[in-house]
Design brief:
The complex is a heterodimer of chains A (228) and B (241). Chain A contains eight helices and no strands. Chain A is mainly α and 228 residues long. Chain B is mainly α. Chain B is globular. Classes of the chains: A mainly alpha (228), B mainly alpha (241).
């Protein structure tokens, strides 16, 4: 075992921070996109029109039964081919792993957010939707004005907890050579042969960030709990 | 789409590509099996510790769960594979004596076992705490000691209650073995990538892996549903679904 040298962290801090910035950016985009698509998927799963419900359920179950790593690699080579099909260009566009990861994570997280939103919608009493229809609202109006705001509020802590998990899962893109926080650390660790110091540092940073965030979610949960 | 690729021979290897994938599946299931045994044992101990009335045990149990829940799995793999042998000379000496495959296999089991144990600890705690306090009191009242109360009264009920979340954990564990690819374990995902890269048959290789993972997920689901029906307590938990 050589001497430990933690100076390597100070030297490479700007590079690591850039990686962390990508990680945070991808997390936020995927959490927002996942929530939007997840909510639509949840509405589809609860639809009384059977084919729509079946397709949505099939998609969600497929995504949930596959390892994220497999999905990341699927999208990495499928997305360019799909874009080529849509735009009709001659060769698949070079979009790179950094950008395809955004699509991957939105599509993957949508399945998980769908299940959360579905639970949230189902937790609202049936009388509410009956009341909404009774005062003459359409389906979309009653969803938008009555059901979804409540479902969203009830599920906010769960959605945020899932986002913390997402923040951790984003690290898997480093296996596609993307320079996220872990990817940046891997590259520095290999360049400077400071593997032990780098990985220890990354583990500590993740722990501090995720633990703090989860404490904040817990606090929020107490604050917004509705007294029934 | 060319299904013939699966019976084509692997260059500089023995066997066809389908045999490669099958051997990868073997490593995936083997790793998941041993990691599950470790996770279930440790998770039960830590989960029970968190429901005792000893504040020090509860705090230690909570710290254990938070530690493994707040670090990404791939970083935990790196820590067990690179950092621990780098910091502890005794581990280093032992690891060097293993062959690389054994080293990857043992690391994957330890890493996934500990990672999953934190989740199981959380479920076991929730299961025990969902029981009414009367059960514990009844155990003590008929003269059982604390360990006996856990063994004969609390745990048999708690385990039955948490079978559905444990089912998800089994499936998560099997899916998570794919991350062992990052340290080079030759499990299913590793073999899938290898096949895709060497034959340029990305679609076929990934479709095969997708199918295999789906079948695993469905089988795990069925097996756990069977267990759930077998052990259901009449009148307490609805048997099956």
């Amino acid at each position: 075992m050589g001497e430990l040298d933690f100076d390597v962290i100070g030297r490479s801090l700007p590079y690591l921070l850039k990686g962390l910035q990508y990680t945070v950016q991808l997390t936020l985009v995927a959490a927002l996109g996942g929530t939007v698509f997840g909510t639509l998927l949840a509405l589809a799963r609860l639809s009384s029109f059977k084919p729509v419900a079946l397709v949505a359920a099939g998609y969600v179950n497929l995504m949930r039964s596959l390892p994220l790593l497999l999905v990341i690699f699927w999208f990495y080579f499928l997305v360019p081919v799909l874009i080529q099909q849509v735009t009709g260009s001659e060769r698949p566009p070079q979009i790179g792993a950094e950008r395809s990861a955004y699509i991957t994570f939105i599509m993957f997280e949508a399945a998980y957010f769908c299940e959360i939103m579905r639970a949230g919608i189902q937790s609202i009493s049936r009388g509410q939707i009956g009341a909404a229809y009774a005062v003459g609202l359409t389906y979309w109006q009653s969803m938008k004005l009555i059901i979804l705001p409540q479902a969203f509020r009830n599920m906010l802590p769960v959605l945020l907890t899932q986002s913390i998990i997402l923040f951790q899962d984003v690290s898997l893109v480093s296996l596609l050579n993307v320079t996220d926080f872990v990817g940046a650390a891997v590259k520095i660790a290999q360049r400077d042969s400071r593997i032990v110091e780098m990985y220890l540092f990354v583990a500590i940073v993740y722990f501090v960030l995720c633990y703090t965030l989860s404490l904040m979610v817990k606090r929020l949960q107490h604050r917004i709990a509705i007294v029934r | 789409m060319n299904l013939g690729i699966f019976i084509e021979q692997v260059p500089d290897g023995d066997g066809a590509w389908w045999e490669m994938l099958a051997s990868g599946l073997g490593w995936t299931l083997g790793t998941a099996f041993f990691a599950w045994i470790m996770a279930f044992t440790l998770g039960s101990i830590v989960g029970v510790a968190r429901t005792t009335d000893k504040p020090s045990l509860v705090r230690a149990g909570n710290a254990y769960v938070e530690l493994f829940r707040n670090i990404p799995l791939i970083v935990q793999f790196f820590v067990w594979y690179f950092v621990v042998p780098g910091l502890v000379p005794a581990v280093k000496a032992w690891v060097v004596s293993l062959d690389p495959t054994e080293h990857q296999f043992v690391t994957s089991i330890v890493c996934l076992g500990l990672f999953t144990s934190a989740r199981i600890a959380e479920q076991v705690r929730a299961g025990i705490q969902s029981l009414s306090h009367g059960q514990r009191d009844a155990g003590y009242a008929i003269g059982l000691t604390r360990p006996q109360t856990y063994r004969h009264v609390l745990l048999p009920m708690a385990y039955r209650i948490i079978i559905p979340p444990l089912t998800s954990e089994v499936m998560n564990l099997i899916k998570n073995t794919a991350v062992a690819y990052s340290i080079g374990l030759v499990e299913l995902f590793f073999r899938t990538r290898e096949m895709a890269e060497m034959t340029f048959r990305y679609f076929e290789a990934f479709a095969a892996a997708t199918l295999i993972y789906m079948v695993i997920a469905m089988s795990a689901n069925r097996v756990m549903a069977l267990i759930e029906r077998r052990v259901a307590v009449p009148g307490y938990i609805a048997g099956g679904k």
